[in-house]
Amino acid sequence: MRTLVVYESMFGNTRHVAEAIARGLEDAGTVATVPVARVGDEDLSSYDLVMVGGPTHVHGMSRDSTRHGAAVTAHKPDSSVTLEPDAESEGLREWLDGLPPSHGKAVAFDTRAGGPALLTGRASKGICRKLRLRGFDLVAESESFLVDKESRLEEGEETRAEQWGRTLAQQTSSSRK
């Protein structure tokens, strides 16, 4: 099974989750983990599974204004977060909007603050909608991984992401038989 994990990350949390998911998927085949700023015109139809994840900003996927806000936060003298190298590039929203119609299996994930999704929002909801509009079949429920009030991944979330990747690998492999 060939899997592509595409992610957007501001402070490294979504990158850590994407890398953990990829570790969980490795037993099922080849996994490429790529930040959205570097995915370019990758032929998504050459993958058996495409996973897409990003941070939740203002109840949904990031946009130019929220990426700028993240950069401002990271550059404050008393900031406890470090901005990822590609954080100010175009994000998932723009990449997904520019994808040609396609087909294949996909799954979405996000990082967000703890609490009911109704209050925090979920970037994965918009990611799922855009993937379906591009012709992808969503083969599993999206998943959220939680960050604390200091914008740090909560304890155990990386382990949970790796286990989720293993579970998805098993489900996808058994559905291909």
Automatic annotation (TrEMBL):
Organism superkingdom: Bacteria
Biased composition (Polar residues): 168-177
The Flavodoxin-like domain, residue ranges: 3-169
SUPFAM superfamilies in UniProt: Flavoproteins (SSF52218)
Entries under InterPro entries matching the protein: Flavodoxin/NO_synth (IPR008254), Flavodoxin_CS (IPR001226), Flavodoxin_dom (IPR026816), Flavoprotein-like_sf (IPR029039)
Compositionally biased tracts (Basic and acidic residues): 148-163
Positions of the UniProt region annotated as Disordered: 148-177
GO molecular function: electron transfer activity; FMN binding
Name of the featured protein: Flavodoxin
